[in-house]
Every structure is written in C-alpha cells, then in structure tokens.
C-alpha cells in the first residue's frame, strides 16, 4: 500500500506520476466523483489503483467481457512510477483508444518494469479497460 491514502491524500503527488496532486488527477476518478475523460486518464487511474490497492476501481474500470471473475493483486509489489509512451485515439470524441506505457515496480527487493500496450473502449459513456499486450 502506498502512502497516498489518508486524510490529506488529495494534496500528495498522484501515484501515476503526472506531476499533479492526487486530488487533481486520479483521486476524483477513483472515488467516482468524475469519469475519466480519456483512455489515458483511465489508464493512469488504474495504475494509481494498483499503487494504493484499490481493487474495486480496478475491477469496476474493466470491461465486463474481459474482466476476471477474481482479481489477484500481489500486495508485495510496490508500483512507483508510470511512463506513458504513446496514446492513440481514446479522446473524448473516440470510442476506442490504445495506450502504451511502462509501469515501474519493486518486488522482492528488485526494481522491475512492465511494458504494455492496453486497449480501451467507451461503454455506456465511460472508458473501460478492454485488454493489454505485454511487450518486450
């Protein structure tokens, strides 16, 4: 669990490393106060959800067709940095989008990275994660 939770979590830097505070960036999306306006914003919120252990947001933001019945999250992994390499589509005017990123994490005392291309779809007016391909 990251240190972004707590009474003043809105004033702390967002786990997605956007440079904004949690309250300006992913916090309102995770709380349900607003929808992700783009596929990239949803992807960033999903990274933040993994970083702080918000399993509900991870599952809720997953397309029902591809969502697993049971989510297994390794609490021993510390997600600490997100690098968005590219985004295609996924704007407020699109119905599909793709985001390529590298998510950096620590596990078993070692630094590691996950490079993935994720696909998103707008469903009932909101972005959802469809699936992803691990690259490299």
Automatic annotation (TrEMBL):
Q: Which segments of the protein form a coiled coil according to its record?
A: none
Q: Pfam families from the xrefs?
A: SEC-C, YchJ_M-like
The YchJ-like middle NTF2-like domain, residue ranges: 38-132
**Family to which this protein belongs:** Belongs to the UPF0225 family.
Q: What is this protein called?
A: UPF0225 protein OSB52_07615
């Amino acid at each position: 669990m990251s240190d972004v939770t707590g009474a003043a979590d809105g004033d702390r830097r967002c786990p997605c490393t956007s440079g904004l505070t949690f309250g300006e960036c992913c916090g309102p999306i995770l709380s349900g106060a607003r929808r992700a306006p783009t596929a990239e914003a949803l992807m960033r919120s999903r990274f933040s959800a993994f970083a702080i252990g918000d399993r509900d947001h991870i599952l809720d933001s997953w397309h029902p067709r591809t969502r697993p019945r049971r989510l297994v999250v390794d609490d021993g992994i510390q997600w600490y940095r997100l690098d968005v390499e590219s985004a295609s589509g996924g704007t407020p005017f699109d119905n599909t989008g793709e985001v390529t990123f590298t998510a950096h994490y620590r596990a078993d005392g070692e630094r590691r990275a996950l490079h993935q291309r994720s696909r998103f779809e707008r469903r009932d007016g909101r972005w959802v994660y469809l699936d992803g391909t691990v690259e490299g």
